[in-house]
Amino acid sequence: MKTKVVLAYSGGLDTSVIAKWLQVEKDCEVVTFTADLGQEDEIEPARAKAAAMGITQIFIEDLRETFVKEYVFPMFRANALYEGVYLLGTSIARPLIAKRQIDIAHQVGARAVAHGATGKGNDQVRFELGYMAHDPDIQIIAPWREWDLTSRTKLLAFAEANKIPVPSDKKGEAPYSVDANLLHTSFEGKALEDPWTAPEESMFLRTTSPQAAPDRVTEIVLSFERGDPVAVDGQALSPAALLATLNRLGGDNGIGRLDLVENRYVGIKSRGVYETPGGTIWLTARRALESLTLDRGSAHLKDEMMPRYAELVYNGHWFSPERQMMQAAIDASQHYVTGDVRLRLYKGTVTVTGRRSPHSLYSEALATFEDGGATYDHRDAGGFIRLVGLGARVVARRGKH
């Protein structure tokens, strides 16, 4: 009896080769799953490509709202940045794909799942930890760790021998590989493997260059409820529609480009170029609103937790008890993070110009340089400083003996 396997299928060359390889080399019955996460590519052609290979069980699902609401929203509540700058666009998509693969495997009675991640990257870890978290006994097939198609030439030869259509731009060496979803677009490999080589302007898909962006300011107001964005300029939007709107506004104004040399989980340094226009606006606004609504201790504790949280997401531990425990603490801090943030978008920059909240901890009476009256007695600061400085005085006196 053939092993039935659910393949994470993009419809591109690599996963099409994998689908055929699973059929002819592993004698598997292949089921394909294509997730629409807002990658802005044509999704339906994947169905025709899968059907042309004799695949009869083909799943294509629009998961954009689920992706943003259940994965991106929680991650942004943590203000997560890997190595201080990366907004984790690829990392956060893999757990959802992995979970749905397992759901489908259970639905169709498949005993195995497969992915197209290479043996050098992070995605193999993210996919497989996701599989294990939902079915510890599922068989996992990772073709890039098994087959002998170890070069682009061999991959193309296999495709042509098995009548798999090869896009014209893949006949030669592609300048870079691209991964996209509603949160970001990433570019890696080939010409970018030299960290001194600047990316070509023609590479970018979502953002106008800052230099070519309009010579006028775009002003917007982003509204939040309990830590999550809910409206742009007063217009309530669904999670996916809101992120798409921010992407358009950010992209038009040259916002959200990042050129990064990062540390992969497997120990390799890699260079990636990213476009995250909406996410860049979103994070800037979130931090501005938290500055108004979080007490000092909560704000600083969140900042201490963030690097560990981001590392867990980057390394594929989205479903781990540790990430879930941290999420519970982070979510508890968001009860009063409600309000509006006004921002100016201009030639690659996002500038906060105002913030307001019904739960603000900011007191103009306390902050003013004018006479605070009975609200604050300046003389109290003397005793406070003497107490805070007690340890410093004790140490200083020791040094005099």
Major β-sheet, in short?
Answer: 5 strands, parallel
Approximately what portion of the residues adopt beta-strand conformation?
A: 15-25%
> Strands of the biggest beta sheet: in what spatial order?
3-2-1-4-5
Mean of residue pLDDT?
A: 93
Say what oligomer this is.
single chain
Helical percentage: 25-40%
Lay out the secondary structure.
Elements: E1 3-8, H1 13-24, E2 28-36, H2 45-52, E3 58-62, H3 64-77, H4 93-108, E4 112-114, H5 123-134, E5 139-141, H6 152-161, E6 177-180, E7 185-188, E8 218-225, E9 228-232, E10 235-236, H7 239-252, E11 257-263, E12 269-275, H8 277-293, H9 296-314, H10 321-332, E13 339-346, E14 349-356, H11 364-367, H12 380-388, H13 390-398
Parallel strand pairs: 1-2, 1-4, 2-3, 4-5
Antiparallel strand pairs: 6-7, 7-12, 8-9, 8-13, 9-10, 11-12, 13-14
Helix pairs in contact: 3-7, 4-5, 7-8, 9-10
Describe this protein's structure.
This protein is α/β, with parallel strands linked by helices. It has 2 domains: 3-78 and 88-174, HUPs (Rossmann fold, 3-Layer(aba) Sandwich), CATH 3.40.50; 178-294 and 333-356, Alpha-Beta Complex (Argininosuccinate synthetase, chain A, domain 2), CATH 3.90.1260. Helix content is 39%, strand content 20%. Strands 3-2-1-4-5 form a 5-stranded parallel β-sheet, with helices on both faces. The chain has a 5-stranded antiparallel β-sheet with strand order 10-9-8-13-14. A 4-stranded antiparallel β-sheet has the order 6-7-12-11, with no helix packed on it. Helix 4 (93-108) packs across helix 5 and helix 7 packs across helix 8 (277-293).
